[in-house]
Amino acid sequence: MNQIKRASKLAVFCYSFGDLASQFVWAFVGSYLTIFYTDIVGLAPAAISVIMLGARIWDAINDPMMGAIAERTHSKWGRFRPYIAFGCPFLAIFGVLTFTNPFSGTSTAGVVWAAITYVIAGMLYTLVNIPYGALAGVMTEDAEQRVKINTSRNIGMNVGMLIVNACSAPLMLALSGKGATVANSRGYTMVAVIYGIISIPLFLILFFTAKEKIQPQRQAEKFSLKDAIGNLVKNKYLMLLCLIMLLVMTAFMGRMAILSYYVIYCLGSFELIAVIMTVPTVLTILGSFFVPIIVKKFGKRNVLMGTTFIQAIGLLVVYFAPFDNVPMVLTGCVIFGLFNIAMPVTLSMMSDSVDYMDLKSGVRTDGTAYATYGLATKVGNALGGSVGVILLASFGYVANQQQTVAAMKGINLVVNLIPAILYILASLCCLFWKMSDKDADEIREKLKVRDEK
Q1: What is the rounded distance in angstroms from the CA atom of residue 34 to the CA atom of residue 52?
Q2: Backbone torsions φ then ψ of 217, nearest 5 degrees
Q3: Which range, of 76-80, 191-195, 319-323, averages the lowest pLDDT?
Q4: Distance separating the N- and C-terminal Cα atoms of the chain
Q5: What gap in Å lies between CA 170 and CA 167, rounded to an integer?
Q6: Residue 353, SS3?
Q7: Is 43 exposed, middle or buried (0-12, 13-18, 19+ CB in 10 A)?
Q8: CA atoms of 166 and 275, how far apart (whole Å)
Q9: Alpha helices in 291-436, H assignment, sequence order
Q10: Is the CA virtual torsion 228, 229, 231, 232 positive or negative?
Q11: pLDDT of residue 428
Q12: Residue 305 in contact with residue 423, Cβ under 8 Å?
């Protein structure tokens, strides 16, 4: 029998650089674009909601297409790596353009500018990150190393978020001019420029160190959107994972998109944004180091089910904390952050779902599977941000004003209680995952025997 193909230790480590780079662009967009639109540009909440949801409707078509195109790519660099190298400069540029708007937010031109820059930035994120995510499934045949690769990614993601969360607010204030107490347009734009410049070499390091070890056993057929969607829908485990990640990412990224409102208007301090966003991220990085150990002991499904439920408890602690009780708020943030390991676990489970479908149908769908998974995360992000800002308006939120008691209660509910409920639902969905880690190992052994014939 042939030796199991594995990634190098350097490749496993440098795989983290892809999500580290992504966070400099996309975490900044996810955390600050909504408040930039409302408080700086002056866009109406309804307009923001339409822009974000419209972009995700397009992603429903664009993302599977990108995954299928990547699967069918043939180059000396492989199927997935070229998109990372050649797409990252354009992603950085449009990450900056989303934080510019030369028109009034109340004008048609202002809305159109915001829509175009946001949609194109999302498409470029797809162009780079779907191939990046698919790489994890083709860098190694070793199940434990796949967990390590996705753990490396999770660490990179959270280090990126840590830097963005800790540095963005102080940097924006510093770049907004002397004596600024809240960030202005220049502050947002200049920070986006800095992050974009940092992201490009990180993506290129990933490109040069990652290698594609697993190749499809047969040539991919001519792209058919109908067939691609059909293969994905038939994969029951992939569909379940997408539902779980839709719930988790609606809670997580949606919360990040509007967390600034809670800190500024409920806790009463722009400077506290860095603390409230940084504390959970530091704990997430710490918790990520234990993922391979606890997954090996308890299994991927059980770890995912337990940690998402505990995250809900952390958010409930924050929700019930009085606004002047910052220690209690931080306690909830610690609980929430320490158990925030859904990403590496679900990514490893996604590789299991691809192997399952490969054995069942003979079709390997690394790219389109990750595209579907990624779409679920992006839809969750958009739903959380767009629906969240509409809910804030319904509770009486008014930009740049002292909020009423009802508005502050509404902000707390949207930022903390609703995400807690979504995490509980995600935890319950895990009960429907019936493939054990032992089953997944047996599937890989059968694939290996099949491919050696």
Answers
A1: 10
A2: -80, -15
A3: 76-80
A4: 10
A5: 6
A6: helix
A7: buried
A8: 7
A9: 291-298, 300-320, 326-338, 342-361, 366-394, 405-412, 418-429
A10: positive
A11: 96
A12: no
What is the sign, positive or negative, of the torsion defined by CA atoms of 249, 255, 260, 261? positive
202's tokens: 């990180």
- CA count, 13 A, side-chain hemisphere, 10: 7
Phi-psi region of 140 (alpha: psi -120 to 50; beta: other; left: phi over 0): beta
Q: What is the per-residue pLDDT across 63-79, written as a single tens digit (0 to 9) for each?
A: 778 877 877 778 888 88
User: What DSSP string describes 138-176?
Assistant: HS-S-HHHHHHHHHHHHHHHHHHHHHHHHHHHHHHHHHT
Query: How far, in Å, CA of 227 to CA of 411, rounded?
Result: 43
Residue 167 pLDDT exceeds 70: yes
Residues 6 or more apart whose Cβ sits within 8 Å of residue 202 = 17, 18, 20, 21, 24
Tokens read off for 46: 């309804």
Is CATH 1.20.1250.20 correct for 9-211+223-452?
Answer: yes
> What is the maximal distance between C-alpha atoms in the chain?
71
Q: Which two tokens stand for residue 255?
A: 């919360």
Q: What is the mean pLDDT of the segment spanning 408-412?
A: 93
* CA dist., res. 193 & res. 201, Å (int): 14
pTM for this entry: 0.72
Q: How far apart are CA 244 and CA 342, in angstroms?
A: 9
Query: What confidence tier does 286 reach under pLDDT thresholds 50, 70, 90?
Result: confident
Q: For CA atoms 428, 431, 437, 441, give the dihedral sign.
A: negative
**Rounded Cα–Cα distance for residues 79 and 101 (Å):** 36
List C-alpha distances in Å: 449 to 2, 209, 441, 443. 10, 29, 13, 10
Judge residue 345's burial from the number of C-beta atoms within 10 Å of its C-beta, 0-12 exposed, 13-18 middle, 19 or more buried.
buried
pLDDT band at 1 (very low <50, low <70, confident <90, very high): very low
Burial (CB count within 10 angstroms: exposed 0-12, middle 13-18, buried 19+), residue 12: buried
The pLDDT, as a whole number, for residue 302 is 95
Q: Could you tell me if residue 340 is left (phi over 0), alpha (psi between -120 and 50 degrees) or otherwise beta?
A: beta
**Residue written as token pair 């390091």:** 205
Q: What is the distance between the alpha carbons of residues 236 and 316, in angstroms, rounded to a whole number?
A: 32
Percent of the chain past pLDDT 70, that is, above it, reads: 92
